[in-house]
Write a structure and sequence with these properties.
CATH superfamily of the largest domain: FAD/NAD(P)-binding domain
CATH architecture of the largest domain: 3-Layer(bba) Sandwich
Largest sheet: 7 strands, mixed
Radius of gyration: 24 Å
Number of helices: 16
Number of domains: 2
Strand content: 15-25%
Structural class: alpha/beta
Strand order of the largest sheet: 6-5-15-16-17-14-18
Bound molecules: flavin-adenine dinucleotide
CATH topology of the largest domain: FAD/NAD(P)-binding domain
CATH class of the largest domain: Alpha Beta
C-alpha cells in the first residue's frame, strides 16, 4: 500500500503537536514532513539562557493552565505522558502607587473602603456571568447559538465608579489580555480576570523550562523536520497539495496528500495560497480572526534575589505600562543564587515600546520598579528583550464563533485535504492549540484509515476477480 504523505507548515507547538498526534492516532502508513522558517523548533515556547551565567528564563509562553480539577485536561495529561515534572505557580499581589497590595487590608489601607466594596461587587458580577463550569466548557465545538457578542469588555469597567478600584482591575488583567478592554468582548475579558481565581483554574510551569515540552515532542516524532525552510506558497496540483519552500535562496516544491498550515494568524498572509477559491477563503478566514494583540518581554539577570523576603510569589502585577506582570523567573529554579525578573508588557503599551531599542527598554523596566525594589540597579548583570507584536489574539474565535470543522477547513469543496491549526481558533493558549492540533490530526487519521480500508477492499476484489467479472 502506498504510504500517504502529510506536510505541516510551522514548527511551533501547533505543528509539533499535530505531527505527534497524527503519528500516534493513525493506523495507516503515513510520512510527515514539517517545515519551519527559523533555525529552531518550538515557536513561542522559548526558554533561553543568559550569556553571563547559566541561568534560564521564559521569553515566550509563561505558564500552563490547569483545568484538571474539573475534568479532562489533555495538555496536563500530555506533559505527564512525556515524563515532564511540573511546579505550581501563583501570585495575587498588585503593586500600585509603589505600595504592595497583598490583602483586602492592604487594599483598604491604600485605596480606601469604597474601592474594596467596588472590587467585591465587580468580582460578584464576574462570577455570576461565568461560573467555573461555564468557564471550563466555554468553547462550543458546534459554534454557539447565542447572539453574537458585540459589547466590549470596556463596558464592564464603566460600572466601576471608583477610579482607584478601576485602575486596580485594569492593572490586574492588562498583561493577560494583551490588549485594551475596548478591543475585546466581555467573555474573553472575564476569562482573563477569572483565571486569577483558583476555583476557575490554577497555573504551573515545567521544571527545567517550558521549552522541554517541544523538545520532548521532537524527540518522539518520526517526521522529517526541515528547519530554515520558509513556506511561501501552497497550491493544488491534481489530487495533491504542493508546498513551495525557500531554503538558502533555493526554491523547492514538495507534494503531499494532506497539508496542515499551523501558523499564527499574523503569519498567514505571508504565504501565497495560489488558487483563486482557496485564496479568497483564506482571506475571509484571516479577516475573521484578525484581532491582533501584543506582548513584549524584558528579562533581567541580577546577582541576587534582592526582592526576598518582601516578595515571595511567582509573579506580581505592576501598575506601570498600563499594567504589566512581573515574574520572579528565579522561582522556577530553586537553589539558584542568581535573581531573574521578567516584565511582561501587553497591549498598546507593548506595541509602542517594541519600537524602542533594548537598552531603552531595560532602562524603562528598571525605572518602573517601586522604591522598595531600588536595589535592582546595583544587582543588575544582564538584560534581554523579546518582542511579540501581533503574536497573539485579542478576540480568539473572532466575532461569532464558528463550528470546529469551519474553523479548521477554510475551503472544503476544492481543498478538502488542506487544514489550518491555531490557538487563535480557540482561546489563544497552549491548551487551545493542542485542542486544534488534536482535532485536525483525528480528522486526517480518520480519512487515512478510510482510504486504507477502501484500497484494501479494492485489492481483495481485484484478487478474487470480482472487478473482472463485473467488467465482463
Ligand atoms: C509573550 C507570550 C506569552 C505567552 N504566554 C502564554 C501562557 O502563559 N500560556 C499559554 O497557554 N500560552 C501563552 N502564549 C501563547 C502561546 O505561546 C501560543 O498559544 C503558542 O505558541 C501557539 O503555537 P503555534 O504553533 O500556533 O504558533 P507559534 O508558536 O507562533 O509557532 C509558529 C511557527 O511557525 C513558524 N513560521 C511562521 N511563518 C512560517 C512560514 N512561512 N513557513 C514556515 N514556518 C513558519 C514560526 O517561525 C514559528 O516557529 C504566550 C505567547 C506569547 C507571545
Amino acid at each position: 500500500m502506498r504510504i500517504k504523505t502529510v506536510g505541516i507548515v510551522g514548527g511551533g507547538p501547533g505543528g509539533l503537536l499535530a505531527a505527534y498526534f497524527l503519528e500516534k492516532i493513525v493506523n495507516a502508513p503515513v510520512h510527515v514532513t514539517l517545515f519551519e522558517a527559523s533555525e529552531r523548533l518550538g515557536g513561542k515556547i522559548l526558554t533561553p539562557t543568559f550569556s553571563s551565567a547559566p541561568v534560564s528564563y521564559e521569553a515566550g509562553a509563561a505558564e500552563f493552565y490547569d483545568y484538571s480539577h474539573f475534568d479532562e485536561d489533555p495538555l496536563k495529561d500530555l506533559i505527564h505522558e512525556l515524563g515532564l515534572s511540573i511546579q505550581p505557580m501563583g501570585g495575587s499581589s498588585v503593586i500600585m502607587d509603589d505600595h504592595l497590595l497583598s490583602s483586602t487590608v492592604d487594599i483598604e489601607k491604600h485605596l480606601g473602603s469604597a474601592a474594596v466594596e467596588e472590587l467585591k461587587a465587580f468580582d460578584r458580577r464576574a462570577r455570576n456571568l461565568i461560573t467555573p463550569d461555564e468557564f471550563y466548557h466555554s468553547d462550543h465545538p458546534e459554534g454557539t447559538s447565542k447572539p453574537v457578542e458585540r459589547t466590549s469588555f470596556a463596558s464592564m469597567f464603566e460600572q466601576i465608579k471608583d477610579p482607584q478600584a478601576r485602575r486596580y482591575v485594569e492593572t490586574l488583567i492588562h498583561s493577560d489580555l494583551a490588549t485594551e478592554p475596548r478591543c475585546t468582548n466581555i467573555s474573553y475579558g472575564l476569562q482573563n480576570y477569572l483565571m486569577n481565581d483558583c476555583d476557575y483554574m490554577t497555573l504551573y510551569g515545567i521544571v527545567g523550562g517550558n521549552e522541554l515540552l517541544p523538545r520532548e515532542l521532537i524527540s518522539r516524532i518520526h517526521a522529517t523536520l526541515k528547519t530554515q525552510h520558509v513556506v511561501n506558497e501552497v497550491s493544488k496540483r491534481g489530487h495533491k497539495i504542493c508546498v513551495e519552500t525557500i531554503h538558502e535562496e533555493i526554491t523547492e516544491s514538495h507534494e503531499f496528500d494532506y497539508v496542515i498550515v499551523a501558523l499564527p494568524h499574523v503569519s498567514i498572509p505571508t504565504v501565497n495560497f495560489a488558487d483563486d477559491d482557496l485564496a479568497e477563503s483564506i482571506r475571509d478566514h484571516h479577516d475573521h480572526y484578525n484581532h491582533p494583540a501584543h506582548y513584549l518581554r524584558v528579562s533581567m539577570l541580577f546577582d541576587r534575589q534582592f526582592w526576598k523576603p518582601t516578595l515571595n510569589d511567582s509573579y506580581w502585577m505592576l501598575d506601570k505600562f498600563d499594567g504589566c506582570c512581573l515574574y520572579d523567573e528565579s522561582s522556577r529554579q530553586p537553589g539558584s543564587p542568581y535573581g531573574v525578573l521578567g516584565w511582561l508588557l501587553g497591549g498598546e503599551a507593548a506595541l509602542e515600546m517594541c519600537e524602542l531599542n533594548d537598552e531603552q527598554l531595560i532602562e524603562a523596566a528598571l525605572d518602573s520598579l517601586p522604591p522598595f525594589l531600588s536595589e535592582a540597579r546595583e544587582c543588575f548583570l544582564e538584560g534581554c528583550v523579546h518582542r511579540w507584536a501581533s503574536a497573539v489574539s485579542a478576540l480568539p474565535g473572532g466575532i461569532g464563533k464558528k463550528n470546529e470543522a469551519e474553523r479548521h477547513q477554510p475551503e472544503p469543496i476544492h481543498h478538502p485535504n488542506l487544514f489550518l491549526v491555531g490557538d487563535y481558533l480557540y482561546d489563544t493558549t497552549l491548551n487551545g492549540v493542542l485542542d486544534s492540533a488534536h482535532y485536525v490530526a483525528s480528522w486526517i487519521a480518520a480519512k487515512l484509515d478510510e482510504d486504507a480500508a477502501t484500497t484494501h477492499t479494492n485489492q481483495v476484489l481485484e484478487t478474487t476477480g470480482v472487478f473482472q467479472n463485473v467488467s465482463n
